[in-house]
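Q: I have 281 residues here and want to know how they pack in 3D. Can you give me a structure?
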Amino acid sequence: MGMGNWDSAAAYASQVPATFKWWLDFTSTIGGRNPLSGISRGGNFTHGIHPAFTGIHPSFDGTGFNFRDDNIIAPQTDPRIQHDPTDRTGHNGLTPLYKLRAGLRYSAYTGKTFAPASAACPACTGTPVSDTTNFVYIARFDTDILLADYVEAQHQYFEALANKDITANAAAVLAFVNARRAVGNQPAVTLSGQALKTELRNQRARDLFMGGFRLPDLRRWTRFDPGNGPFAAGSYFPTGTHPNPTWGQYGAWTCFPIPLQEYEGNPNLPRPADPTVPPSI
């Protein structure tokens, strides 16, 4: 996928069986604990959802709610992305975050929702916010994480089809998109062209949420489909003011800089002419 070889990507992804799941296993024993467990709850948590995730935070998309509002319960109909209804500042005491419950990539995932059952969402469960036993924060000591599975392979397959020819493959891509929307208690859509690609990416973001895929996804889309992201000038990376106002504006970097030690230890790795200028995608 990263090389833009859509035929090979689709061919390999199509070979992954529906039962395939490769877990990163953790235990309650010291030395084998999930490292996210200590930063998922309490006052030391460090992760939440950007207010413009997938273009707009899923809990505020057309609901009348705004980022930092309280009592965000009714909009939380997608079990893949659930979070506490009130934001808190975490480890740094500055950045507003909504504490996350376990998503699809985590063994503690239950498919539950804070949103109650309704005509629009009959599968919603209305699980109480206080129930952290059956509806746990994203990771406990022994919470396993999916490294790879059939769902992720299917996203690779249909993204490859969409990038090769979104017109010829529209029916197949749309069927997959609507199947994934059903998992999120979302109604089916009728889309084509760039709008269908965008929704495919939206479903990928929801299915793989907190699975470690986001940065390479954004870089790949920037490389092969530039100008079609949700931010200013079609960027896939956030632009403008950071949600933490004390941090000012987003910069131009779209990758982690190579540490100085890597340059010092590898004479075959040329140093950048100007270390303040990010490399191209």
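Q: Anything worth noting?
A: Strands lie at 21-24, 88-89, 96-97, 145-149. The chain has a mean pLDDT of 94.
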